[in-house]
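tool=predict chain=A
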Amino acid sequence: MEFSEHPLELNAIDFDHKAVGRKVWWRGEPAIVESFISGQACVILKPDGIPQFTVPPEFAEEEPDYYEDETVKTDILDRHIWWFRD
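tool=predict ok
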């Protein structure tokens, strides 16, 4: 159900190519879909207009290494992605 109603229109031809460059919100911060990993149904998000994503409060004590990178890899069903950003 989640896949059939997904904003990327997963049944459309070349949906994965159309996803690249899409402006989204990730954890309330502006991001752009840099690439789509079809075999994993994941996207690589890069910050848009900010140097890097903020470490979420639940990970603040751990300071995970992946927030030091400029991009984040996440599942297309991640509830922290808001697909509609104009």
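The chain has one helix and five strands. Residues 23 and 77 are 16 Å apart (CA to CA).
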